[in-house]
Design a protein that fits this description.
With 85 residues, the chain is mostly beta strands. It contains no helices and six strands. The chain has two domains: 42 residues, Ubiquitin Ligase Nedd4, Chain: W; 30 residues, no CATH class. The strands form two sheets. A three-stranded antiparallel sheet has the order 1-2-3, with no helix packed on it. Strand 5 and strand 6 form a beta hairpin. The structure holds iron/sulfur cluster (SF4). Iron/sulfur cluster binds next to loops.
């Protein structure tokens, strides 16, 4: 199970593939920076009970549909918080 990082937080604003910004502190941060105490997890496939990891960056939703762990799920009607996969 991967450590959580800022890219998993709803306050993370990606700028490009390397950099981003924290919407709370307004600081420049990177996607993989360690989280702080203000962390609020963003709905993502890897946090969903319907997601099963198969490889590092690949898995299945409900055992059938190809899905990626870091895919945001804030608009997914089937999303339900589970343990991180
Ligand atoms: S609130 Fe904390 S965990 Fe979230 S993006 Fe900012 S620094 Fe990262």
């Amino acid at each position: 199970m991967d450590e959580l990082s800022c890219k998993d937080c709803r306050y993370f604003l990606p700028v490009d593939v390397f950099r981003g910004m924290c919407k709370l502190s307004k600081e420049k941060i990177s996607h993989d920076d360690p989280v702080c105490t203000n962390l609020e997890k963003l709905a993502k496939c890897k946090f969903c009970i319907n997601y099963t990891a198969e490889k590092d960056y690949l898995g299945k939703c409900m055992g059938t549909i190809l899905a990626f762990p870091d895919m945001t799920a804030s608009k997914c009607a089937d999303f339900q918080w589970g343990i991180q996969n």
